Amino acid sequence: MSQFSDHNFQNQKALIRVDFNVPLNAEYIITDDNRMRATIPTIKKILVDGGSVILMSHLGRPKDGPTEKYSLKHVVAHLSELLGGVTVKFADDCIGASATELAASLNAGEVLLLENLRFYKEEEKGDADFAQKLSKLGNIYINDAFGTAHRAHASTAVIAQFFAADKKMFGLVMEGEVASAEKVMHKSETPFTAIIGGAKVSDKILIIENLLQRATDIIIGGGMAYTFMKAQGGQIGNSLCENDRLNMANELLKTAASKGVNIHLPSDSIIADAFSATANTSSAPSNSIPDGWMGLDIGENAAEQFSNVIKRSKTILWNGPMGVFEMEKFQHGTKAIAVAVAAATKNGAFSLVGGGDSVAAVNQFGFANQVSYVSTGGGAMLEYFEGKSLPGIDAITQK
Ligand code: AMP
Questions:
Q1: Nearest CA to ligand 1 atom 2
Q2: Ligand 1 center–CA 352 separation, angstroms
Q3: Which of 12, 85, 254, 302 is 20 to 30 A from 285 in CA distance terms?
Q4: Per the residue annotation, which of 17, 35, 245, 335 is the catalytic one?
Q5: 136, 200, 314, 329: the active-site residue
Q6: What pLDDT was estimated at residue 66?
């Protein structure tokens, strides 16, 4: 494996797997271009070195081949703008004659974007022939798509076998993601606090189990906290609860106690009489929520209690919101956590925010540049912290 920053790309044709899976509205306008912006430094470095760039990505989940809605041609103009006016050529097929000819005639300083990889079923199947066809388009392979690193697809993992060890590497996005994830997972300074929130315990069991081996403190908020409350004999009214996970919640608490890991559950909650932005609200201890009411955010005391734990931490991992932060009445807890994570970071802690909704929350509240690292890959980051190996990483790092 080569280091991207050390590499000189002069006269090289770099084939880069990027994550341009951006949301588009009905007029095909990009509504959030963060994933595209993230990879611009990788592309620019190659162009500045005097190389050319061939970009491949998926967009959405096309079912049956080419679909107008999922065509990557919709992102060409915006990509050119993000690159400061560099012309971006477009191949209307990711393999075949047009892609081959356009790639072959690409000059130094030029960029070519290939049509959606998932117009071919072979992409998600990890088909080796398809991967080999893609590999022929460039002479260096770069993976900069952390968002798909947990998939063993043709363009994210299988393709790497067609390049020599010094001709495959991570791009700057992947380098940053892998370095910050490794820092939290393997080089964490203590106290190490993991903040886990979101709707369902069942989605977060594996990550909690794995973090029990590493963290000193685990804060549990969001809808999933009420399964733990009920498991401990609490009354949770109409709050979200996974009744088939009560035993497991108790097991997790027992394991934590035996390992000396502090589990912090919200002592109080903001409760509502309906799951609605206009519901009546009140507050209550999280273990005695009246019938007809549901906990939709952590309460004032819990926010303070959690903030104190966070502020004395040296390593922080945050996955999942503390409440229904999409509604103004229930965003206080998530905001308070963002403030505390920012304060700890200012104090020298390393903080990593990973996983879709907590990333959306720090962006929405304007805290993204006050934490150490905001991950671009939700599912990939989650699997990494579940302790799974990611095919997109292994394909580059293993010989
Ligand atoms: P996840 O994708 O599992 O991280 O869950 C994120 C979602 O959980 C967000 O859409 C939140 O609105 C939702 N959520 C957080 N807290 C609660 C709660 N107390 N009750 C219901 N939903 C919640």
A1: 198
A2: 19
A3: 254
A4: 35
A5: 200
A6: 95
Beta bridge partners of 285: 268
The token pair at 81 is 């703008």
Residue 2 pLDDT? 74
Are 235 and 136 within one domain? no
Q: Which portions of the chain are predicted below pLDDT 50? A: none
Q: What does pTM read for this prediction?
A: 0.91
Digit-coded pLDDT (tens) for 286-323: 999 999 999 999 999 999 999 999 999 999 999 999 99
Q: Ligand 1 centre from 328 Cα, in Å?
A: 14
CATH code of the domain covering residue 63: 3.40.50.1260
Domain count, the chain: 2
- In ligand 1, the atom with minimum distance to the C-alpha of 319 is 4
To test the pocket of ligand 1, the residue of 236, 271, 324, 327 to mutate (highest count of ligand atoms within 8 Å of its CB) is: 324
295 CB near ligand 1 (under 6 Å): yes
Domain co-membership, 8 together with 107: yes
Give the three-state DSSP class for 370.
helix
Query: Are 234 and 271 contacting, i.e. CB atoms less than 8 angstroms apart?
Result: no
> Which ranges of 149-261 would DSSP assign to H, the alpha helix?
172-186, 205-211, 225-231, 246-259
Task: Please say if 200 is a catalytic residue.
Answer: yes
Angstrom distances, CA of residue 128 to CA of 97, 152, 351: 19, 11, 38
